[in-house]
Fold this sequence. Notes:
Elements: E1 5-9, H1 13-25, E2 29-33, H2 36-43, E3 50-53, H3 62-75, E4 83-87, E5 104-107, H4 112-124
Helix pairs in contact: 2-3
Amino acid sequence: MDGITILVVDDNPINIMVAKNLLEKWGYSVDTARDGQEALELFSVYKYQCILMDIHMPNMSGIEASLAIRKIENQENATQIPIIAFTADTFLDERTLVEPKIETKLLKPFQPEELKTLLEILVRS
């Protein structure tokens, strides 16, 4: 996927490795962050076409990081990039995703085809 870079944010190195390997196999460029703060630092420097954001992380949660990203986008009048909640929390209330405008959630462990379909819809739209 020429020119499409995805940011994977997760505090678990195994989850990062699995997602990164899969996305790179599909032709995406991938950057990774271990928490919301690191994701914000990368977001302020690089352009991404999608973010896979773990919700429960130390230092700064995925919800806090997503809210901060949306605030930056609003201040810059930038187009909102798709954020996918990348979580193992099966009880995550969908209302939690509304304010940070997180498009959808992908439960871990995930099915590769489900991620591929989501990216085709969100990144190509």
